[in-house]
Amino acid sequence: MKLTPQIHQMESITVTSNKPELWQKRLALFTKEFIGPFVTKKECKIENPEVLNFHKDPKSGNLIANASAPLNIINYQLGYHLKVILKTFDWTTNGVTGSYTFYPHFIKLKPNNKEQLNNWKKQRLDTYKGSLRDFLYSFMHHQLMNNDFDINHDNIRTMSLTEIESLNRPDFQNGNVLGFKLFGDVKVTYHNYYESTLSGNHQDYFLVDPLGNLLNPTSVSISGYWATKRVAYLLPRYYMPDN
Length: 243
What we know:
This protein is an alpha+beta fold. The protein has two domains: 21-114; 130-233, no CATH class. The chain contains four helices and 13 strands. The protein has helices at residues 21-35, 114-128, 132-140, 161-165, and strands spanning 44-46, 52-56, 63-67, 71-75, 80-91, 98-108, 149-151, 156-158, 178-182, 186-190, 194-200, 205-208, 220-224. The strands form three sheets. Strands 1, 2, 3, 4, 5 and 6 form a six-stranded antiparallel sheet that branches. The chain starts with 20 loop residues before the first helix and ends in a 19-residue tail after the last strand.
């Protein structure tokens, strides 16, 4: 007896796996607090949310998130593709307070035309103005008044070179770090309207590179206007208004 194989063509089948409803709710909270509370998917979107895992901390009840692979984030508003390595994410489930640490890598998107490129440049400049980086750079270069910042100087001062060297920071080389000492909350007002607060977090100093980037971001906490500016408002470390 001889069997002759026959091939039967069938319609294609798409197999999908829906994430549980609880995961979807936690993703919504994560997206709101990580990307930004006032940001739409048309402006900034996580392309691969399936790599995210969530659980509830048994002690604090906070939402904890981690990712099995780098997050691919497309920022249509600023013209960047971000590859983000998420290190920590710890947030209260009522969305009031929280913290996260991550390492971003920026890739510029290719504009469709000159008009889109010019719009990206404008959005980047608008995002930079009044930001924490703008404030720190302005403070370093004595340009607070020129850049429309007002602060209570009593609670912050520049650290001396000796003080910075005594920290034994490996990233301090040839004077490329400026240090600031905190003596309480620093109230900052931008443009006589936007109010923010800079506070010490476990230590009374923080370090800044020549472009105004925080070198030890977990050393401070921010609230007010700056706290609403999350990943969707993030610019590369090398960005400056004149480049």
